[in-house]
Amino acid sequence: MFVASLGVLFYLVAVRQVVDVGYIRGLVESTGPLAPLTYVVVSASLGAVLVPGPLLAAGSGFLFGPVLGTFVTLGATIGTAVIASLAGRRAGRESARGLLGPQRAARIDELIARGGLWAVVGQRFVPGISDALASYAFGAFGVPLWQMAAGAFIGSAPRAFVYTALGASIGEFSAPLAYTAIAVWCATAVVGAFAAHRGWRSWRAGRSDR
């Protein structure tokens, strides 16, 4: 979906030239600081209802450019994490503890106390996992809000740049920016897959020991 959306955007901007990037960005800049703040709020809300984050980030880059757009994307990402975590905590906290049972719930609480922040950071690096769905689950398991916000900021920074820069590269016709974004995406995907594999092996080893 993300690649198809970028393709359509490139077709409208570069091939058909029916979208004037300079005119659109001029309109956005004329509204002052209201436009980025509005986009943060709207994008955070859409992300919480499972609108794909890469599409929202690409739109941020297209409208605001790679630098400001990255900060807008990060703000929206943190907002989505907080909204989804609050909803998960409110709707699923007691149910999750009931399904886990008292012993497993206590063990989860201990794990969160030791490394909840880094669990959120690590999840953001693993490719193929919906950040919003993970935030609902983290909320249901009781991860504190400050850990959700800090973890989303730290863990989402590379991908926020990637998707925002890809959207901005279409508006600015910048191939080096697109290549840089793709390289950063590949690096974070490798790191995330390696971390997930190590975590899975460690968990399996712990189960075998018990």
From TrEMBL:
Record-stated family: Belongs to the TVP38/TMEM64 family.
Key words, A-Z: Cell membrane, Membrane, Transmembrane, Transmembrane helix
Membrane topology: Multi-pass membrane protein
Principal subcellular localization: membrane
Signal peptide residue numbers: none
One Pfam family named in its UniProt record: VTT_dom
Intracellular or extracellular location(s): Cell membrane
Keyword Transmembrane helix tagged: yes
PANTHER family documented for this protein: GOLGI APPARATUS MEMBRANE PROTEIN TVP38-RELATED, TVP38_TMEM64 FAMILY MEMBRANE PROTEIN RV0625C
Entry keyword annotation includes Signal: no
Transmembrane feature ranges: 6-24, 36-57, 63-87, 133-157, 177-197
Sequence ranges assigned to domain VTT in this UniProt record: 51-168
The protein's name in its UniProt record: TVP38/TMEM64 family membrane protein
InterPro entries for this protein: TMEM64, VTT_dom
Superkingdom as given in the UniProt entry: Bacteria
